[in-house]
Every structure is written in structure tokens, then in C-alpha cells.
Design brief:
mainly alpha, 6 helices, 66% helix, elongated
Length: 192
């Protein structure tokens, strides 16, 4: 299993675990308290779940993200933005239904739904970061100039990842750009 596939499966598990954890926490907190306290305990459970989800989500993806100062700032801003959007929409749902509990549940749901896409936008690789990452790839590999897919060993000059068709001259030129070589490197032939 590749590391990326493992991260995706772990991220999926975190997404599925969040509502289960929140529901279990509400049940534990509400046990033995009055109905008037239900709204407070529901809010507390939503807050604890959101905090744990943020920590878990960052832990899953931290190795894939280049954590620059501006990206950290944007991550904090996306947390606040998502909480603001979730709270606003939750208040709207509470006003529409005249039920505070419905508003709290929808606030948590709206926050959750806005947080994941905002991290995808904030954490995505910039062109400069991609170029730096591609320069660290082992010399001698042929990577797709469009998406960076390792095309070494393919029998045709079409990238299976993005579908772009290349000529051998285009791939050779891209290889020269990434390695800085002026001449192609000869591969020794073994006598096996």
C-alpha cells in the first residue's frame, strides 16, 4: 500500500469517526442532566469534536503539506472562516426551525463541510513548491512535464495520469530541464 493511499484511508476513517465520536460524547455528557442542559452539552460536544477533528486532520496530512508561515496563517484563518460560516448557517437553521438543537447540529455539520475543502485549497501545492519537489526526484527518471507522474519504463510517450501525449524530444527536453544535463546519460549494459 502506498503512503498516499494509507493517508487517504486514514482521512476517510477520521471523517467517519467524527460524527460517531460526537454522538457518543453527547450521550455521555447528557446522561443524568436535565433537558435544559442538553443544548449546552450538545454545544460542548460539537466544540470538542471540532477541536479533535482539526488536530487529527492536520496530523494525517502534515507530511504532505509545506508548512510555510503564510500557509499556517491561512490554516488558522480557514478554521475561523469555517466556524463563522457554520455558526451563521446554524443560527439560520435555528431561526427557521425554532429549535436551538437543530441549529447547533447544523452549525457543526456546516463547519465540517466547509473545513475540509478550505484545507484542500490552503494546503495545495503551489507551482514553486511543485518545481522544488520535482527537482528532488532521482536523476534519470522521466517525469511528465504536466503533472509530474514518473513515466520511466512506459512503452509510449503518453502520461497515464493526466493523458498528455508527448514526443520523445519533448520528454528529453523536460529531462534536461530537471537534471541540468546537456547530454543524455548512457546506461551501462550488463552481460547477463
Amino acid at each position: 500500500m502506498t503512503r498516499l493511499l494509507a493517508r487517504l484511508l486514514l482521512a476517510f476513517a477520521v471523517v467517519l469517526a467524527a460524527p460517531v465520536f460526537c454522538t457518543a460524547l453527547v450521550i455521555v455528557l447528557v446522561e443524568g442532566s436535565s433537558y435544559r442542559m442538553f443544548t449546552l452539552w450538545l454545544s460542548v460536544a460539537q466544540g470538542i469534536t471540532a477541536l479533535l477533528f482539526i488536530v487529527a486532520w492536520i496530523a494525517v496530512w502534515r507530511g504532505q503539506v509545506v508548512w510555510s508561515r503564510w500557509r499556517r496563517s491561512l490554516t488558522y484563518a480557514s478554521v475561523l472562516w469555517s466556524l463563522g460560516v457554520g455558526s451563521t448557517l446554524g443560527l439560520g437553521m435555528a431561526a427557521i426551525t425554532n429549535e436551538e438543537e437543530v441549529g447547533i447540529v447544523f452549525a457543526g455539520l456546516f463547519w465540517f463541510v466547509t473545513w475540509i475543502p478550505s484545507t484542500a485549497l490552503v494546503w495545495r501545492e503551489t507551482a514553486r513548491e511543485r518545481a522544488a519537489r520535482l527537482k528532488t526526484i532521482v536523476v534519470g527518471t522521466v517525469n511528465c512535464p504536466n503533472c509530474g507522474y514518473n513515466m520511466t519504463g512506459l512503452h509510449e510517450a503518453r502520461c497515464p495520469e493526466c493523458g498528455t501525449q508527448y514526443t520523445l524530444n519533448e520528454l528529453f527536453a523536460a529531462l534536461q530541464e530537471t537534471t541540468g544535463d546537456l547530454e543524455p546519460q548512457a546506461t551501462p549494459v550488463s552481460d547477463q
